[in-house]
Specification:
The protein is of the alpha+beta class. It contains one helix and four strands.
């Protein structure tokens, strides 16, 4: 299952991103609750990670590049990387 949550304040494709430290918060509890509804025996009553926060910095030379931050989520863990 793939979830694409595009927030109303998301930057658009041709935006120049300011050099800065950014933080993205993923509401994993809502997603995991939907998973539990479909597979009640596999998911816990309360999610182990109700949210995941990813912090990253934009370098001056890379402020015009595309940034994609995927979150790989399982019931008891997550990981992230800079996507392409």
């Amino acid at each position: 299952m793939q979830i694409k949550d595009q927030a109303p304040n998301m930057l658009h494709f041709h935006s120049v991103v300011a050099v800065h430290r950014y933080s993205v918060r993923f509401d994993t509890a809502t997603y995991l609750a939907a998973c539990k509804a479909k597979h009640p025996g596999y998911y816990a009553n309360l999610p182990f990670y109700p949210e995941a926060t990813v912090c990253f910095e934009i370098e001056p030379a890379k402020s015009t590049e595309h940034y994609h931050i995927p979150l790989l989520l399982s019931p008891y863990g997550y990981s992230t990387y800079r996507g392409s």
